Amino acid sequence: MSRLVVISNRLADPRKPAAGGLAVALGDALSQTGGLWFGWSGNITEDGTPGEGDLRVRQAGAVTLATVDLSREDHDSYYLGYSNSVLWPVFHYRLDLADFNASYIAGYRRVNQMYARKLLPLLKNDDIIWVHDYHLIPLAAELRAMGCKQRIGFFLHIPVPPPLIMAAIPQHEWLMRSLFAYDLVGLQSECDVAHFTRYVRNEASAEELEDSRVRAFGATVVVRAFPIGIDVDEFTRLANAPEAVETCERMREEYSRRRLLMGVDRLDYSKGLPHRVRAYRELLDRYPENRKSATLIMIASPSRDDVNAYSDLRQELEGLCGAVNGDYGELDWMPVRYIHRMVARKRVPGLCRAASVGLVTPLRDGMNLVAKEYVVAQDPEDPGVLVLSRFAGAAEQLKEALLVNPYDTQGMADSIQQALQMPLAERQERHQKLMAGIREHDVHWWRREFLGALETAGA
Question: Are residues 255 and 288 in the same domain?
């Protein structure tokens, strides 16, 4: 059996329960082959030399963890700069928030070259290499330039924008050309595949071949959608654990006279949080029977607070929540409970189960696994209703949710009202169908499908 090598920006010890479903799924595959997981250590060396970093290798059971430090200059240009100030906003359709600083791309290329240089001596001839996410798009091209012949697959965890938005990135052709150094490119949704193929058709006169193969830039790559799932059994165990059960019971006791609407997100401009608050305000205005009977709990965990776009978002969100509470609140009812803190993962299933309506309404998202977690956390006998943005990758799979346009304030308010009024039989039927799809296409299915396709693509 070939050894699996996983490369990602950050890595986790798969033996630890807090590692999360993705780390557990990758850890299972890595453990089967005595695999290698390579990425950034999380350490920044203030006086480090750009393009250089200390490599540390340690064992985590059968898995080898190899990490590299970044210099301050590399971190700021590769991670904060190109990855999160160019690629993240552009890939989420936010050209207005992109910072096209010309120096960022040099740091991005330099770090990917360094990673390739550090990784190459650790590789074996029959390794299968799986690269993850937008931080590492050019890694295969750098490895190929150094003589790497192994099969290499890439999975993008964020959406692919339409061709004209992609073309706004300086040196976008170099970026997209580098994807053709992979044997397989995996994307979250069929929409993402369509955007990718349209881009290479428009910009590089690409030829679409059979078996999902695309030829451009003198190379051929397989491009397919592999919608990522969650570890259903692991999350179910989490939902039945004492912490989650206690959280659910406490929430239901505290809000015994209310229906709870719940949103759990990172504070990020892609999540549509201000739009959600405006829709809730519209709900209270258009359907006054929800006053004093519905409470919106908004959990927005901190995210890059040192970036202006995020501090501006926090200020806007706090202002909107305060206005709703000031205009509609009563002495014995606060319409919105806004929490800007991390909530322990072991508590999240309990929060989800206590909520009559789960609000997952991003402006754009690669997948959004919280939507799937909300469904899994529900009581099948009395399930809540998922209100899901049509612009989340998950919407392609979770068609039994109430799909909404987060830009349509009145439409979203109407859908929330529909969720609150939905009869039990319809809620049960929708939940049953959602659960069947989530269980069939879980994170283990995703891993098997991708690695199976990579075996074939590299043959």
Answer: yes
Q: Which domain holds residue 156?
A: 4-229+443-457
Cβ-in-10-Å burial (0-12, 13-18, 19+) of 60 comes to middle
Look up residue 214 and give its amino acid.
V
Q: Are the C-beta atoms of residues 243 and 346 closer than 8 Å to each other?
A: yes
| DSSP letters for 310-340 | HHHHHHHHHHHHHHHHHHH-BTTB-SEEEE-
CA distance 73 to 53: 12
Return the ∠ at Cα 91 (arms to 85 and 93), rounded to 5°. 95
CA pair distance 384, 382, nearest whole angstrom = 7
Which residues does the annotation mark as catalytic? 157, 365
Question: What CATH number does the domain containing 317 carry?
Answer: 3.40.50.2000
Q: Where are the beta strands (DSSP E) in 52-192?
A: 55-60, 63-71, 128-132, 151-155, 184-187
Do 133 and 273 reside in the same domain of the chain?
Answer: no
Alpha-carbon gap, residue 26 to 131, rounded angstroms: 12
Whether residue 291 sits in one domain with residue 205: no
Encoded amino acid at 131, one letter: V
What CA–CA distance (Å, rounded) separates 198 from 219?
Answer: 17
Residue 194 parent element (H or E): helix 190-204
Residue 113 has which token pair? 């070259």
CA angle 408, 412, 417 (to 5 degrees): 155
Looking at the DSSP bridge assignments, the partners of residue 386 are 358
Both 238 and 216 in one domain: the answer is no
Cβ(318)–Cβ(359) below 8 Å: no
Q: pLDDT (tens digit, 9 = 90+) per residue, 265-275?
A: 999 999 999 99
Total domains in the fold of the chain: 2
Residue 211's CB is within 10 A of a number of other CB atoms, namely 9
Max CA-CA distance within the chain? 70
Q: Are residues 267 and 302 in the same domain?
A: yes
Closest CA to 299 of 217, 241, 360, 236: 360
Backbone angles phi, psi at 48, to 5 degrees: -70, 160
Number of helical (H) and strand (E) elements in the chain, helices listed first = 17, 16
Q: Can you tell me whether residue 110 is helix, strand or coil?
A: helix
Tokens 């059960």 belong to 245
pLDDT digits (tens, 9 = 90+) for 94-145: 999 999 999 999 999 999 999 999 999 999 999 999 999 999 999 999 999 9
Q: Which two tokens stand for residue 459?
A: 């043959």
| 3 state SS of 289 | helix
Helices (H), 241-356: 242-254, 273-286, 308-328, 348-354
Q: Are residues 96 and 107 in the same domain?
A: yes
pLDDT, position 20: 57
Residue 291 sits in the same domain as residue 399: yes
